[in-house]
Amino acid sequence: MKKMIFFIMMMISSYGCEKEKPIAYSSSLIGEWEWFISCGGVAGCSTPLSSNTSMKLAFTPDSTYNRYINDTLESSGRFYTHITVSQDNHDTTDIIQMGSLVEKYFIYCDTLLLSAINYNAGSAWKRIK
User: pTM of the full predicted structure?
Assistant: First the structure.
């Protein structure tokens, strides 16, 4: 898991970040996001180029999401966010639920990281401007 997070963070740093922009929180999910890498499991990492697949997520202010694969709507519904607090060290984790899918999320500059809660897998998405 640490290797995957390190790899994704390295990918994010290659995109850069304006110094004026603070780390964003849940309200910053609103908008459109384009997938640029997924890593984890036995498959390793994949990108739109290596998989010949494009994916987009769209979050609206009324808590609706749409997931597109190759510009075709694959799923849609309501999304919910909440914060969990570790009983051990009181660390907080942002959680998003889209249908039956529940993942941790983190936003840094214009990059959204989604990671499976119980698996060694995650994906990174770039905000579409």
Answer: 0.78
